[in-house]
């Protein structure tokens, strides 16, 4: 299904998974608004897109409701409507045992990864509900941590478990507005957050083990695939991971 002329917002588009998704969507002819905290990084992403005139960098703080509202207003003013939101912005946390997690780090991780994701979903609902024709698709970046934590990752795991609830709630409540909401869970992609796995990750056994990675472009292609369906069909959950990462099975 062609998406030439469709408009997508990608948060966290300045690097990693967000940049890979933006490049993949650009290759399919989407008009893009690239959201993130660092303008220079967003401009680098825009310059790498095959049709950069169709990519608009926009500095956004997803933890600030007014900043998120400005992002959606800009997209509507620039392109007229919003067909897809890839709700991807997120931060990692220090690998710290539960009893040693600083309260401010807990608040920062939950603020960006969960509250920020909620504010983006809320703004997307308002925009997609009110446009004509109404509706659109939201894809939340959940991570494998949305269901299965690593040791010493309580803040990140809780934030991503919250994304699972956000996706389910948005999928349910979006029906009346023709909004489809799904979730992509990513394991060991070669991004800034995921690439440390190749150097060695703490396992449940207490051992440190190097883990394989997959190329980022596969994640971008998966996001494109999730939006390739009409709005009356939804990929509710999609897991994409390095085939040999220690996730399936025991040990």
Question: How would you concisely characterize the structure shown here?
Answer:
Helix content is 38%, strand content 18%. The chain has 251 residues and is of the alpha/beta class.
Morphology call: globular
Strand tally: 9
The main β sheet shows up as: 7 strands, parallel
**Secondary structure category:** alpha/beta
How many individual domains?
A: 1
Strand order within the widest beta sheet: 3-2-1-4-5-6-9
**Radius of gyration computed on alpha carbons:** 17 Å
CATH class: Alpha Beta
Number of helices: 6
Distance between the termini: 41 Å
CATH architecture assignment name: 3-Layer(aba) Sandwich
Can you tell me the CATH topology? Answer: Rossmann fold
CATH superfamily: NAD(P)-binding Rossmann-like Domain
Helix percent reads 25-40%
Q: Low-confidence stretches at least 5 residues in length (pLDDT < 50)?
A: none
Order of helices and strands: EHEHEHEHEHEEEHE
Report strand %: 15-25%
Mean pLDDT: 93
What does this 3D model show about the protein?
The protein is 38% helix and 18% strand. It is built from 6 helices and 9 strands; from the N terminus they run βαβαβαβαβαβββαβ. It has one domain: Rossmann fold (3-Layer(aba) Sandwich), CATH 3.40.50.720. The strands form 2 sheets. The chain has a 7-stranded parallel beta sheet, sandwiched between helices. A two-stranded antiparallel ribbon has the order 7-8. The chain is α/β, with parallel strands linked by helices and 251 residues long. The longest helix has 28 residues, at 103-130. β4 (84-87), α4 (103-130) and β5 (136-141) form a beta-alpha-beta unit. The N and C termini lie far apart (41 Å).
């Amino acid at each position: 299904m062609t998406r030439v002329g469709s408009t997508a917002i990608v948060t966290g588009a300045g690097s990693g998974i967000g940049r890979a998704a933006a490049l993949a969507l650009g290759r399919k002819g989407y008009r893009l608004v690239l959201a993130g905290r660092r303008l220079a990084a967003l401009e680098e992403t825009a310059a790498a897109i095959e049709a950069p005139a169709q990519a608009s960098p926009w500095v956004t703080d997803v933890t600030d409701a007014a900043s998120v509202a400005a992002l959606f207003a800009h997209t509507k003013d620039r392109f007229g409507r919003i067909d897809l939101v890839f709700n991807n912005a997120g931060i990692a946390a220090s690998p710290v045992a539960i009893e040693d997690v600083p309260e401010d780090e807990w608040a920062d991780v939950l603020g960006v990864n969960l509250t920020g994701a909620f504010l983006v979903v809320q703004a997307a609902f308002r925009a997609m509900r009110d446009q004509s024709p109404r509706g659109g698709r939201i894809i939340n970046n959940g991570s494998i941590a949305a269901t299965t934590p690593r040791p010493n990752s309580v803040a990140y795991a809780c934030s991503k478990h919250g994304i699972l609830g956000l996706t389910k709630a948005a999928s349910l409540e979006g029906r009346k507005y023709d909004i489809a909401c799904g979730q992509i869970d990513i394991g060991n992609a070669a991004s800034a957050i995921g690439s440390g796995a190749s150097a060695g990750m703490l396992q449940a056994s207490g051992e440190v083990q190097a883990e394989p990675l997959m190329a980022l472009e596969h994640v971008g292609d998966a996001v494109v695939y999730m939006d390739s369906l009409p709005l009356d069909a939804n990929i509710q959950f999609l897991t994409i991971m390095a085939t040999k990462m220690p996730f399936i099975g025991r040990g």
